[in-house]
Amino acid sequence: MSVTDVLPCNALLAIARQAIAKALRYRYAALDLHELDSPLLQLERASFVTLESDGRLRGCIGSLYARQTLAEDVRHNAVQAALHDPRFQPLLPHEPIRIKVSVLSPLEEMDVANEAELVRQLRPGLDGILIRVGYHQATFLPDVWQSLTTPEAFMQALKQKAGMASGELDSDLMQAWRYSTQICSEPDEKSIELGQ
User: Chain centroid to CA 24: how far?
Assistant: First the structure.
């Protein structure tokens, strides 16, 4: 899948919503993903599933590396975001949510000698960033640029998320990768229909 491929958004959002409904009703979320009509859903891709309720984050879980089909990755991450994001209580069926699926490009390692150089190379609004120093790592999707609009603020918040010190990163240990996303998003919040 390349950046010019059109994502099958309706199918991705339906997979996420159906997986959450099954997990809420039966505590498992097996779906028949083999008869999906888009070949793009069968490619190995990494994704994040973000849930919003009342316009605020309600859960977000994802994969940075492609290890399974896009359909399966979205199914898995949707259930994790709804029921297992440690920052939130598990989703309740009556809660209205809006689902957003972000499909990641492959990670591109950045050649930077220090944190200042990394900050200079950031492309606001475009880059998702993964940083790693030793055992500490964190990522922000490109959407985070909407609230952290400068490279300096973006980097500072990313280090805080990773549990890193607020000072300059140790350049000998620092690694950084960038990626982009293609996004599918529901227009409105609605509750999960559990079905019969």
Answer: 21
